[in-house]
Amino acid sequence: MKNNNNTLKTLTAAGLLALAVACEQPAQNNLADDSYMYTIEVQQKYLLLPIENEATEVKMQLLVENTPIGEPINIRIAQNQIDYWIPIEIEAYKGKKLTLSFNEAQNARMGFSKIKQSLSYNFAYQEKYRPQYHFSPQYGWTNDPNGMVYHNGEYHLFFQYNPYGCKWGNMHWGHAVSKDLVQWQQLPYALAPDKLGAIYSGCVVIDKDNTAGFGKDAMVAIFTSASEQQVQSLAYSLDNGRTFTKYEGNPVLTHPTIVDFRDPKVFWYAPTQQWIMSLATSQSITFYGSKNLKEWTQLSEFGEGIGNHDGVWECPDLFPLTYEGQTKWVLFVSINPGSPNGGSATQYFIGNFDGKTFTPDPLPYPLWIDYGRDNYAGVTWNNVPAEDGRRLFIGWMSNWDYANEVPTTNFRNAMTLARTLNLAHNGEHLVVASKPVKEIERLRSETISLPNKTATTTTFEQLLNNNDGAYELTFSIIPNGSDNFSFSLLNDKGEELTYIFDIANKALVTNRAKSSVAFNANFAAMLIKAPLTAKKSYTIRLLVDKASTELFVNDGEVVQTNTIFPTEAYNALRFNTDKGTLSIKNVTIYKLSASETAISY
Ligand code: FRU
Predict the structure, then answer these.
(1) Rounded to the nearest whole angstrom, what is the distance from the C-alpha of residue 316 to the centroid of ligand 1?
(2) Which of 19, 142, 201 to mutate to test ligand 1, by most ligand atoms within 8 A of the CB atom?
């Protein structure tokens, strides 16, 4: 396995340095003497900035009538070629003087002369690898999902967001809402960097009893402000998340020495009448308690000598699930690197929580919620109504090993489907199983059922007419004693994605070596392995959305989420075994139509 030890450190260090510099001084003083000033009178809706993915970053300050708006940001204005355009909404400044001030001279890069006003920007969602039923930002970069909360009839999804380019940086909280976890409407970003730094991951709670004093039922965001130090901050909204006010007493939780001190996830713990925060503290999770979200007391620390420690611990989440009437507590801990399949992945622990301490059950840790390479930093929704009762989850559908390089245009990276979590027994021990939320079934616009088959090798050709790469496959396989069989998605370009059931070695192995256009050796190189227990039959559910595959085996006991970047959509399904025959039953293909139930933005 490639040694990825520096991946996040490099990323974080670069971002922190840039923002630390940015935050030290007033905006105007940041700029070199020969800095380029682009000045216009605002007449149109957008300012379009030409971006080159691999250009170096230049610092940019937006000013309206000579007053700086927000913090300076880092942007890759084109040097040699324009890869895509990033829009900045400027309509609110109509008739006013707007200046972009750069800390480079006018002749430093060709992109400066291409900046232009425009009445429109193409939000058509037709780019080659644009997901049709997964959330992805209209433009720019996303990583972790943040602040998921249900409130007043809406599911909120905030997300780590760079609105100024398709690489990690300038971390904001983007914002989207949905009434059904399927159709997402993107709203203006919710939180932008400030003097305390960039806005890293965190959560939102509904303060029903006004414990913080921001107002009854305030949405309170608890997040990491990241500059040279990582500290925890608050912001609140009294208008269903449409606008947030940062708390003037920020930060509310600091640490003098721990560098990786981030990603607060908070819930109300009724038995002790206090808020509980899980926080990633380098190689452990520290639990804090608070009566008012503003003052926090350390309760306990978890993690020494258990689970995987090959990378930084991030994005914890502690929540209860019941199994056969008994309440168990589950602790999610994302780690990068340290995934069994390289790069980033989310491990979990099952145990008990007494309001202070999490005590894990003895299980064969590390356990992973998804053994694919592309489900990271996922956490669960707060405040889902009791009558719904589901524990709802969403993850980031990428991997720090290559997230900054995936071959998409205008945007980079997407979220997994919203999923329901439950405890299940895999025959050997309890596992956290996950499956797509039932609302996804509303996307099924066309259903094709194929005849059952018993064969050594068989291929179902032409799964869909006009296959646009957004569909779902379900079937079951009875191996009839074979201990090694596979199924593959194929296209006419000779590309394929293969799932191998290596029962003799108790492994479900995904091979995406020939699945995608080449863009990163690490992406294609490795076989992606998940543990598999021998069963008489396997039920398969596979959701494909242009550039992603989410595989759920036996109702989510084993899950693999893997991105793919094929030249054209996969439209054939081949089964194969080296020994004996397979019985393949109930093969059903659902076209998942985004056009009717469209994800509206
Ligand atoms: C996880 C993570 C978090 C951090 C955020 C920064 O992917 O590294 O720990 O808050 O991303 O964007």
Answers:
(1) 11
(2) 201
Q: Is the minimum distance from the CB of 377 to ligand 1 under 6 angstroms?
A: yes
Q: Which residue's entry shows tokens 């479900």?
A: 508
Query: Among candidates 564, 536, 531, 535, which has minimal Cα distance to 550?
Result: 564
Q: What pLDDT does 32 receive? A: 53
- Size of the chain in residues: 601
CB contact set of 257 (below 8 Å; sequence gap of 6+): none
Q: Which helix (H) or strand (E) holds 202?
A: strand 198-207
* Residue 332 pLDDT level (bands cut at 50, 70, 90): very high
From 6, 159, 200, give the residue whose CB has the most ligand 1 atoms within 8 Å, as the site to mutate: 200
Q: Is 180 a catalytic residue?
A: no
pLDDT digits (tens, 9 = 90+) for 503-514: 999 999 999 999
pLDDT, residue 594, reads 65
Which residue bears the tokens 């242009």?
546
pLDDT digits 0-9 by tens, 522-568: 999 889 999 999 999 999 999 999 999 999 999 999 999 999 999 99
Q: Report how far ligand 1's centroid is from the alpha carbon of 518 (Å).
A: 26
Ligand 1 neighbour 201 (Cβ under 6 A): yes
